[in-house]
Design brief:
The structure holds two protein chains of two kinds. By secondary structure, chain A is α+β, with helices and mostly antiparallel strands. Chain A is built from 21 helices and ten strands. In chain A, strands 2, 3, 4, 5, 6 and 7 form a six-stranded antiparallel beta sheet that branches. In chain A, strands 1-10-9-8 form a four-stranded antiparallel beta sheet. The C terminus of chain A is likely disordered. Chain B is an alpha/beta fold. Chain B has a five-stranded mixed beta sheet. A two-stranded antiparallel sheet of chain B has the order 1-2. Classes of the chains: A alpha+beta, B alpha/beta. Chains A and B meet through helix 11, helix 12, helix 13 and strand 1 of A and helix 1 and helix 3 of B.
Chain lengths: ~650, ~180
């Protein structure tokens, strides 16, 4: 009964979305305020209806209602509560329902907080958001209905893939979707601006917080997913250049570029048509990602159920949304040009270089991901491009990006002085050079390691120098510097944290790549295993009971008495096995122990890694997310845009309260 | 002319959608990767080994008289491929049971391959270094790891895409290898 209620609510949401897509657009074209005002309640009602549907499915999972085909196929009564809950989005149908829920949430947020948006812009933005909603609600209802009944219902469910029964993966999809779908808002704003035929700094000011919110969630989602792969898959790898990973990385690159080009539109009124294009492209990448994960055109470790019909449906949505917006772009964008002039060496110039490199990087990843398909189309040959391709193309693009990233924030708008900026960066430069030389000659490490760590030091040094310059540290009395530090806007701190996070991330990535060690061998109880400067003693294997699985735990003792217990888990309901690595994180490196298979004669295979500096990967990622959050809390974004201040000021919590 | 620039995104997206729709419309399932070479002789090749001057791998190895009527496995691997690491112990297990396991080091630096084998142990009877992936293309390799079962006459009898799990080894490879042994 509750499931049917959910189904009906979903159908209602589709009808409301349809109206939301048409009525406000018509109103905006005719200048009819009443019709335009329809957009806001419609967006709120649409969200409410989808929330009811999502609640109904969640209820079915929590009470293990196996008369629903979806629940029976993906849940089991013996599963812990948290994984019954995360099971709601641990499958294709449920995750698409979460997708539309978040889509409607963003629409509702624009409706609720966009009080001081120009009326026609708001109406058009919400109408475009409604159109996307129509497409995806139809997709859920007609191809992926989570409320289908199963008659007769089975006694128990088939269970959830044990790899997905993990807290990291419980949080990863909602975060990733907040990011993916958050980009729908910038897309809607961009299409609305094209319809309006004008892009002004107030538009950019409106778009920035949404981009920032989506970017922050996307970053968090990618970091969570990468962390999950690191500790759950038991390979000790954190990035595989897998098509599905690339699918989330491409929108991230586009969103990062958009985040930076929107600053130029906001501050200087330049790069308008480019920024609009980026907003369209970022969401196109999100849709492409959704398509790649669901259609199975590319083989991947984490592809969802492969279904050609669903793949074609999403591809059709992609073609309509992106194709339609690009037609509009080709028609309207040529009239948008103009705006502030600037020299190549200037803040604008640096941000343009950033955009050029980031979009080239996104294109590189796109080509690497789709190249096997394209080549097969042309030559009928199947090939694969692995990490060698990405390392050879992506990494070289990042080197100039990091070099320029150090200098960019030091340049003035319009016309910068490169020599002056560089002369202030001598500390960062000598730090980088010194670290590089030490790594190269004293440690005897490869050139790549020296270059990578040098770049990380350069960036960190440059970011801290830029902050020190802003507060005029050591140039004026310390107390005044502290006052200045307090007075800096949060958006400026957001930038500092995010850029510093990137430096820390590079430090971890380079360290993990070049300095990790591994040992794979057979052991019997009592054996000593030496790795890096550690010694582990294998004590044996114990058998235990988990909530819905059986455990074989290997017991390893470190010289200081610490015990590491990697597990092999056998899930009875699903008949599957997973390995749980035991990880002991330390600043210099993680000790990562995996219990492999028994050899049959009392010996066990064990894999032990020293993952050098791995913890800094996650700290760097967390710093980037933190930077995004800090920047979102900036006063400038909480208070409305200057163009609309003719109307009374809204409460200070307006704008992006929901998003941060 | 300037208008054309603004049309570029549209042209790109049309090409992209076409590329993506094509495999679905043709109705092919990418997980089904039957080798076009199934039951056909392996392509002729001759590859150098890991050590300069050391033995390499050539197609003749699979048809030569030293096969003695026994089938062989050809495993395509790379040191940069994570699942390859996982299947090395299983390949070692098969090799210990007397199966002739050969390796094709796909698009990999020989030094990296050597390091990989030093850490994990070397299950391969012989290894051919396929630096540029040409031989892998002749075989129709889609991704690493991939494993081919080759009978004593040098014909490809089975292709497995992805990691060799215990289950794959036990339920597919071992019975097939036994049935091919005379």
């Amino acid at each position: 009964m509750i499931a049917e209620l959910g189904h009906v609510a979903l159908a209602c949401a589709l009808v409301v979305a349809l109206l939301q897509a048409v009525v406000p657009l018509w109103g905006a074209a005719k200048g009819d305020a009443a019709l335009m005002a329809f957009a806001r309640p419609a967006a709120l009602v649409q969200f409410g209806a989808i929330a009811v549907a999502f609640g109904a499915l969640t209820q079915a999972y929590l009470v293990s209602d196996f008369s629903l085909a979806n629940v029976a196929a993906n849940s089991h009564s013996a599963k812990p509560f948290i994984y019954k809950l995360s099971g709601v989005w641990g499958n294709h149908e449920g995750s698409m329902l979460l997708w539309v829920l978040i889509l409607a949430l963003f629409g509702a947020a624009v409706a609720a907080f966009g009080v001081n948006l120009p009326e026609s812009l708001r109406a058009r933005t919400l109408a475009v958001q409604g159109m996307i909603g129509v497409g995806f609600l139809a997709f859920v209802l007609f191809t992926s209905n989570p409320f289908e009944r199963l008659i007769p219902p089975p006694l128990d469910g088939q269970g959830l893939n044990p790899l997905l029964q993990d807290i990291g993966l419980a949080l990863h999809p909602p975060m990733l979707y907040l990011g993916y779908v958050g980009l729908s808002t910038t897309f809607s704003f961009a299409v609305a601006a094209l319809l309006e035929g004008k892009v002004d700094p107030s538009w950019a000011r409106w778009v920035r917080p949404w981009t920032l919110a989506a970017w922050t969630a996307l970053t968090a989602g990618i970091v969570l997913g990468s962390g999950w792969a690191y500790y759950e898959l038991g390979w000790g790898g954190w990035w595989f250049w897998d098509p599905v990973e690339n699918a989330s990385f491409m929108p991230w690159l586009a969103a990062t570029a958009l985040l930076h080009s929107a600053i130029v539109v906001e501050k200087r009124g330049a790069l308008k048509s480019w920024t609009i294009l980026l907003a369209l492209v970022a969401f196109a990448f999100s849709l492409l990602g959704t398509f790649l994960v669901r259609s199975g055109v590319l083989t991947s470790v984490h592809a969802f159920a492969v279904d050609p019909e669903r793949g074609l449906f999403i591809l059709g949505l992609l073609a309509i949304a992106v194709g339609g917006s690009f037609v509009l772009y080709a028609w309207r964008a040529p009239t948008l040009e103009g705006g502030g002039m600037f020299r190549p060496v200037s803040r604008e110039g640096a941000l343009m270089l950033n955009n050029l490199l980031l979009s080239t990087a996104a294109a590189t990843v796109l080509i690497g991901t789709l190249y096997p398909l394209a080549l097969e189309l042309v030559t009928d040959e199947k090939v694969s491009v692995g990490p060698p391709y990405f390392e050879a193309t992506f990494v070289p693009l990042m080197i100039p990006l990091i070099l320029a990233l150090g200098v960019g924030p030091m340049l003035a708008w319009k016309r910068g002085d490169l020599t002056a900026a560089l002369s202030r960066l001598w500390v960062a430069a000598s730090l980088a050079l010194a670290l590089g030389l030490i790594v190269l000659y004293l440690w005897g490490a490869p050139v790549g390691a020296a270059l990578g760590l040098g770049l990380a030091a350069w960036l960190a040094g440059a970011v801290l120098t830029e902050w020190a310059e802003r507060v005029r540290l050591f140039r004026i009395p310390l107390a005044q510097s502290i006052d200045r530090a307090r007075g800096l806007p949060r958006s400026s701190y957001g930038m500092t944290f995010a850029h510093l996070g990137l430096a820390v991330f590079i430090f971890g990535a380079v360290g993990e790549t070049f300095f990790s060690r591994e040992v794979v061998r057979y052991v019997v109880p009592g054996d000593r295993i030496e790795i890096a400067d550690r010694t582990l003693i294998f004590k044996g294997v114990e058998t235990r009971e988990g909530p819905n699985y059986q455990i074989q735990a290997g017991v390893f003792e470190l010289d200081n008495g610490d015990v590491l217990q990697p597990e092999r888990r056998f899930y009875r309901a699903e008949g599957q096995q997973t390995t749980e690595a035991a990880i002991r994180p330390r600043p210099m490196g993680d000790l990562y122990v995996v219990l492999g298979e028994p050899a049959g004669d009392g010996r066990w295979t064990v894999r032990i890694y020293m993952k050098a500096l791995a913890i800094w990967l996650w700290i760097g990622g967390a710093l980037m997310v933190f930077g995004g959050l800090v920047s979102l809390a900036d006063r400038r974004l909480r208070v409305g845009a200057p163009a609309v201040r003719r109307t009374p000021l809204p409460p200070a919590t307006a704008a992006v309260g929901e998003a941060d | 002319m300037r208008r054309l620039v603004f049309l570029m995104p549209l042209i790109v997206i049309v090409a992209l959608v076409g590329t993506l729709a094509w495999p679905i419309l043709e109705g092919r399932d990418p997980r089904q990767l039957p080798s076009v070479l199934l039951d056909k002789p392996i392509p002729a090749f001759e590859l150098p080994g890991l050590m300069s001057g050391g033995p390499g791998l050539a197609s003749a190895v699979f048809t030569g008289p030293d096969r003695l009527g026994k089938p062989a496995l050809l495993n395509v691997f790379a040191s940069w491929c994570a699942p390859c690491r996982l299947e090395i112990p299983r390949l070692a297990g098969l090799a210990a049971e007397g199966v002739a396991v050969y390796g094709l080091a796909y698009k990999d630096d020989p030094a990296a391959t050597l390091g990989f084998l030093e850490q994990l142990g070397n299950p391969y009877h012989r290894i051919g270094v396929d630096r540029d992936g040409r031989v892998a293309i002749d075989f129709g390799v889609y991704g690493v790891p991939e494993t081919y079962v080759i009978d004593a006459e040098g014909r490809i009898r089975h292709r497995h895409v992805g990691e060799i799990t215990d289950q794959v080894a036990r339920e597919t490879l071992v019975p097939l290898l036994e049935s091919l042994t005379r």
